[in-house]
Every structure is written in C-alpha cells, then in structure tokens.
C-alpha cells in the first residue's frame, strides 16, 4: 500500500517505512460468463459445485412450499356444492338420494327411465329418473293444449300413453308419451273436481271427485263404464277420495276422509278387495292423499300420509314394510310439508314437496332393482 492509500485509509499522513515486496498472487479468471451464483456451469471443474448449488436452491423451494402447506393445515376452504344426500347409505331401507329444485311440483307419474311432473299447474315436464339433477329428455316434446293440468297417469298397451286431467277446461287428455298434441280429449258434464286420476293396461281411465265423494271408470273412448264407489261407511265406500293408482288387479284409492287406502274392484260397485284397507288395522294413517305402487311383480303400496308429513311402504296385502320418509329418518334443512303426490320408479320414490318447490328422491339402498322398471 503506498502512502497516499495509507493516508486515505487512516485519515492522516505518516513517514513511509520500507516493506518487503510480496510474492505475486494468482488472480482468478474473468467472471464475465459466470452466473449470479459465482459459478460457471459449463466449466468441468465447477460442474459438481453447480449441481450442489442447484440442489440447494431446489431444496430451499421445497422447504418453503412445505412450510406454506403446513401453515394452511387447519384452515377452512370453500368446497364446491355437494349433493344433498346422506353420507353413508343404510342398506335395505330408504335413503336421501337427490333433491330437484322444481317450481311448485304437484302430481307425478313414472314410466321406465322418466318421471312426468306437473309444474305450477301449467305444464307437464318429463325428467330422467337416474340423474342427480332434473334433466329433460330431448326427444319428448312439450305437451300441448293444456290449460291447468292437475292430475296425471300413465298406461301402457301397444305403446305408452300419458293421461292428464285439465281443470282449466275440465277435460282428460290422452297423449303419446313423447308429448305433442293430445291424441284424444274426454269430458263429462258431471265432473266438478279432479282429485285423482289413474289408467289401466286396457286404456280405461278412472277419475275421483272428492267434492262429490265418487270414483268413476271410463272406457278407452271416454264413455262412462260404471260407478266404482260413492259415499258411505265401511269397506268399498269412500269419503273424500283423492289419489288413485291401478296396480294391475285393483284400483288403489286414497280414502282421505276415512284415513286409509282402499283396494277397490273395478268390475262392480262399492266392493273392496279381500282384506282390510291399508291403515284400517293397528297402523293408523292421517288424511292420506297420494298412493302409488311398484311397476313390477312386487306390487308394494306407497302412501303419502299427508296429515302426518310422512311416506310409508306396505306390501300388496296392506302390511307395513318400511318408512320411506319421516323427518326423523331423512334429515333435511326444511322437512317435507304435507306430501300429497308421489311416484315410484324402480328403487326410487319421488315425493313432490310443493310448498318448498322441490322433488325429493329417496332410494332403497343395497337392494337389486327387480321391480320391472318400464313395465305397466
């Protein structure tokens, strides 16, 4: 170090002192091609050190990412909406399977892969039964000519037909299952109220009128065949009849005023099938309004027990089998309110919850579907 440098380093001058001349020290090569890590990755002698440096940077990144993940543990994340179904299905009984948001659904009827729904008493809309959300088949057209549809039924002969009771003009209209214009329109000047509607495999149809306490049978051409039942006490007679369903042998009738479901013969008047009505024994119903059956060989009977907000399943003889829906069994944020309409499709039972603008689908879990879906 010369004197000038020494002065600059200590801030004052001093007398120079001779010092030995140091040996030359090799200086490193220019660093123009080196990275900001100070190492030339293309140099053979530094390749190992370069790799170690790269590994160190990668390790630092992994450590940092791990710290972030650990920090996130225990944090609450917003997941996509999940289906409203039970976490674990209970075998051999009914479980919540799906909830469809439908505006004011009322009467329903199922056939094969579809369930036909009356919405807002203004239209009939079909949906695939297997889907988690309501999806409409593209090939089924709108049902034309309806004013105020209130009841619906399905019959199968050489093809499948949909019957709709229209309170707007007090007619019953028969459609092909693919929709479009009605194939036939029927009327009866005595009709006052459409409380229930059913059809059989011969294309006869049945109408209940709770206002007049009567159930009638009509031929395929719409002419009156006979009185099935009218007001009276005891079996075979009805009081405020509502939902109807023909199970292949008898006409199931929700005899609301008597708190039971009757199985009525259709070849005579005021005669019930052998045995007691459903709900006439130890199992008591409360103002039932909806009824349906399996469309197969089992012929189980499903009842919408309107007064108790429940849905029950009985065997073909009327013995209790299972609860399909109760507020205690199927937990919903808002329980089903006064169910009046239901439809059965294989292992699914669809319940129209009109006041809550939805259809609730219940599924019989862990049981093979042997109900003959699609059969009349």
**Rg value:** 39 Å
Query: What is the number of beta strands?
Result: 22
Q: What helical percentage do the residues reach? A: under 10%
- In CATH, the homologous superfamily goes by the name TolB, C-terminal domain
Distance between the termini: 111 Å
List segments where confidence is low: pLDDT < 50 over at least 5 consecutive residues. 1-23, 25-86, 370-376
What CATH architecture label applies?
6 Propeller
Mean pLDDT, rounded to whole units?
Answer: 82
| CATH first level | Mainly Beta
Strand content: 25-35%
Number of helices: 2
The sequence of SSEs as H and E is HHEEEEEEEEEEEEEEEEEEEEEE
Structural overview:
With 376 residues, the protein is mainly beta. The protein has one domain: Neuraminidase, CATH 2.120.10. Helices cover 9% and strands 34% of the residues. It has two helices and 22 strands. The longest helix has 26 residues, at 47-72.
Features:
4-stranded antiparallel sheet; Neuraminidase; disordered N terminus; 376 residues; 22 strands; 9% helix
Draw up the topology in text.
Elements: H1 3-10, H2 47-72, E1 94-101, E2 105-111, E3 114-119, E4 123-128, E5 149-156, E6 160-166, E7 171-176, E8 184-187, E9 196-199, E10 205-209, E11 214-218, E12 224-230, E13 241-246, E14 251-255, E15 260-264, E16 290-293, E17 301-305, E18 310-314, E19 320-325, E20 341-345, E21 348-353, E22 358-364
Antiparallel strand pairs: 1-22, 2-3, 3-4, 5-6, 6-7, 7-8, 9-10, 10-11, 11-12, 13-14, 14-15, 16-17, 17-18, 18-19, 20-21, 21-22
């Amino acid at each position: 170090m010369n004197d000038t440098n020494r002065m600059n380093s200590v801030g004052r001058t001093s007398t120079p002192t001779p010092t030995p001349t140091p040996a030359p020290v090799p200086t490193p090569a220019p660093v123009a091609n080196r990275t900001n890590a100070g190492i030339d990755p293309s140099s053979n002698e530094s390749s190992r050190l370069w790799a170690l440096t790269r590994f160190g940077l990668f390790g630092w990144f992994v450590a940092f990412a791990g710290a972030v993940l650990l920090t996130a543990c225990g944090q609450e994340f917003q997941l996509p909406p999940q289906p409203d179904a039970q976490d674990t299905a209970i075998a051999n009984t009914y479980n919540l399977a799906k909830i469809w948001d439908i505006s004011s659904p009322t009467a329903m009827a199922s056939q094969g892969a579809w369930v036909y729904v009356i919405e807002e008493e203004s239209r009939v809309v079909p949906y695939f039964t297997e889907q988690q959300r309501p999806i409409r088949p593209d090939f089924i057209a709108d049902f034309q000519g309806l004013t105020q549809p209130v009841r619906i039924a399905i019959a199968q002969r050489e093809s499948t037909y949909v019957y709709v009771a229209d309170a707007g003009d007090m007619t019953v209209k028969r459609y092909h299952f693919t929709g479009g214009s009605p194939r036939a329109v029927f009327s009866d000047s005595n009709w006052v109220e459409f409380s229930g509607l059913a059809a059989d495999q011969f294309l006869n149809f049945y109408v209940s009128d709770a206002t007049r306490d009567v159930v009638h049978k009509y031929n395929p051409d719409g002419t009156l065949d006979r009185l099935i039942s009218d007001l009276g006490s005891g079996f075979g007679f009805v009081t405020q009849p509502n939902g109807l369903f023909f199970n292949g042998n008898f006409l199931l009738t929700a005899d609301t005023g008597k708190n039971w479901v009757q199985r009525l013969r259709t070849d005579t008047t005021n005669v019930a099938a052998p045995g007691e009505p459903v709900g006439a024994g130890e199992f008591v119903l409360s103002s039932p309004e909806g009824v349906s059956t399996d469309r197969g060989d089992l012929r189980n009977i499903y009842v919408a027990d309107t007064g108790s907000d429940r849905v029950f399943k009985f065997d073909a003889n009327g013995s209790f089998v299972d609860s399909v829906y109760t507020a205690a069994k199927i937990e919903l944020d808002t329980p089903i309110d006064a169910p009046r309409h239901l439809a059965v499709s294989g292992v699914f039972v669809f319940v129209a919850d009109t006041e809550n603008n939805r259809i609730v689908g219940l599924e019989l879990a862990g049981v093979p579907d042997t109900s003959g879906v699609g059969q009349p």
